[in-house]
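Supplementary Note 3. Input sequence used for the single-chain structure prediction.
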Amino acid sequence: MIFNSPETLVKHIRDGLVEEQHFGYVMVLNRVHVIDRVGESGSYPFYLRSCAKPLQASLLFDYELDKDYDLTEEEIALCCASHAGEECHIEIAKKLLKKFDIDESMLKCGEHAPLAESARRKLQENNEPYSVLHNNCSGKHLMMLALCKANGWDTSTYDDPEHPLQREIKSKIYDLCDLNKEYPATTDGCGVPIYSMPLENMAKGYLNLFCSSEYKKITNAFLNNPYIIGGENRTDTKIIANSKNLVAKVGAGGLCIVVNVENEECLVVKISDCDMKAREIVTLDSLKNLHWADIETDHTIKTNQGKVIGEIITTL
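The predicted structure, written as discrete structure tokens, is reproduced below.
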């Protein structure tokens, strides 16, 4: 039996009454052992979701596409990003289309409106449609297609779990995350395979990637381009932009992983009900408790008129 026991991490208190609670896990690790944890996840696996993106992007460097295409830090960042679909993201995506000689129609991530409210509003005001490039995973799919072209793999079926690209990605993720047994796999929201693993292995993968000289370009792409990694009101962008030595990546399903590249430690947050506000507050409060960063976030509960009538607290 796999032991799995989340703990209360967040409480919404309105005039003294606990109205809302969020459960989950917080774990701090280095390369050797777990330093601290809240909630016991044991060997229970969780899907990596978009936290897989920098691990997937490591193949760009294994196959030296960074050199072949003279990739900039911004372009590398977009390949790892869950971007908000703003003009800066779309312009980089268009540059990658041209560099990789890829047609927009080849991307299989699907279309959705920009995550950034300002970008959605601008499209609406100009009566412009959103495109596949606005999908927050478009950079990842561009990267995948580039790898297919470089290796002579079929570009029309790159989303198939048995495609050579996806087999390579799985092998790479399993290697970086030190996995020695099979865990469940599924299809991510953008249509490609995604893998699950215990939270501890997620941290191992991030430490092996971001604290390695072999993938220093990925680390620098994160540190120097926080807005490309996320964008407007994105938690990972806030963390990277307001610190000197932290890389961060959010993932659907309530995940956020942060690596302190200076002391080679990793923070993993998983919110059981996937609430994004709870994820941000727990992550930022954890960073403050660890003395890694002091980033302001609003803990108040307000009426529509702005009157404070409660608070959001973490139980860390």
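The mean pLDDT is 96. The chain is about 35% helix and 20% strand.
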